[in-house]
Amino acid sequence: MVFIIVLLSLLLLIVSITYFKVNAFLSFLIVSMLTAVALGIPLIKIPGTVEKGIAAIMGGLTLIIVLGAMLGKIIAESGAAENIATVMVRLFGVKHLQWGMAFTGFVVGIPLFYGVGFVLLVPLIFSIVYKYKLSAVYIGLPMLAALSVTHGFIPPHPSPVALVVLFGADMGMTLIYGLIVAIPAIIIGGPIFGKTLGRIKTGESEVFQPQENNAQYESYSRPTAWNSFITALLPVFLLVLLTILPYLIPTSNAFAHELITFFGSPAIVMLIAIIYATFSLGIYRGRSMKNIMGIYTEAVKDIAMILLIIAGSGVFKQVMEESGVSVLLAQSLQTLPIHPLILAWTITAIIRGCVGSATVAALTAASVLLPLMQSSGVNPNLMVLAIGAGSLMFSHVNDAGFWMFKEYFGLTVKDTLRSWSVMEALVSIVGLLAVLLLSMIV
What we know:
The protein is an all-alpha fold and 442 residues long. The protein has helices at 2-18, 24-38, 46-58, 62-78, 80-92, 97-109, 114-132, 136-153, 158-167, 171-194, 225-248, 254-263, 266-282, 289-322, 325-334, 340-355, 358-376, 380-390, 400-409, 413-439.
C-alpha cells in the first residue's frame, strides 16, 4: 500500500505539472503535503516537515546558484561570452566549424545557465550561417548539445549542484567526472550526429542579423578574449585546483588543509569568481557599481523560480524520509536485478519524458533514490551524473527547450523531433555509458 501511495504521488505530481499546467513549485508543495497525510504523518507535524525539507536542501545550495546566475549574467552582458564564441570559431576554421561550435558551447555553457546561453549563442549561429551559407541545424546543434550537456552534468548548474547537496557528493570530484563524461556525449550528440542533418531547412529572421548582436555593448569597452576566458572559467579552475591540492600537501600541514577546505567550498569559489568578474568585466570596462549591481539583481530574478522548484523538491524528499517510506523503498529497489546507476537513469528518464523539465525530473528522482544510494554504497558523484544523464532523455513537445529550438530555427515539429529530440537522447545514453565505465575504474 505504501508503494502505491508513492507511485500515485509521483503520478499526481506529473499530471499536475503537465496536464493541469500548475507551477512546479506549487505542485511539489501541494503533492508533498497530500502525500504526507496519506502516509500517516500527523497534521501537526506537516508544517515543520515542509520547513525542514526546504531548509535542508537550500542551506547549502542557495549561495551557489545565486552567485552562479550573477556570474553568468555579467559574462553575457559584458560581451565576454560572445568573445569566447568568436575566438573558438577563428581557431577551428570554416572546415571544422562544427567542432568549434561544440567547443564554444561547452566553454560558454559551464558558467551560463542553459536559457541564457541559448539566447546568447543562437544569433552567433545564424551570423555564421549567413556568412558561410551553411545549414543552421548542421552548425547549431553541436553548440546546443554542449550547452545541454553542461546543464545536465556540470556544476554550478542548478540540477547537478542540488544533487551534489542531496547525495552528499563532492563538488570538485563531480565536476571532474562530469567533464570526463561530457566529452564523449558532446562529440557523439554534437558534431558526429550533426553531420547527418545538413539537409534540414530552417527559417530566417532579421532578429539574427549579426549587427544586432553588438548594440548593447556600445557604451562600454569590451573585455579582451583572455579576460573573457579567465573570468568565465575561473570557478572551474579553482574547484579543480582545490580538489587536487589536498593530495599534494602533507597531511601534517593542518593549517594549509584548513585553508584549502575553506577556499574549496563551492560558495566561496563562486564568491571569489563574482568579485573578480565585478572588476574584470565591470569596473575596468567602464561600468558603474550601480550598473553592475543592477545586472546581478536581474540575474536573481531570472533564477527565482528555479530556486523555488528546488525548494519544493526538498519538501518531497523530507516527506519520504520522515514517513519511513524511503527505507522501505530502498530495501525493495535493492532486490531488483539492475545496477543502481542504471535504475537511477531509468527512473529519471521516465519522469523527464512525462514532466519535460530536466531539473524537475532530476530532483524528483533524487527524492526517491536517495535511500537507495545510501544503502547500496554506490559512488555519490556517479549517482549525480547518472541522474543528470537521465534528466536529458526524452525531450519532446512538453519541454520548453524543444519549442525554443523549433521556433528559433524555424523548424517543423517532425524536423525538431528528428534533430533536437534525437540529440538529447544520444547525449543521455552516451552519458550513462560513460558513467558506467567510470564506475568500473573509480
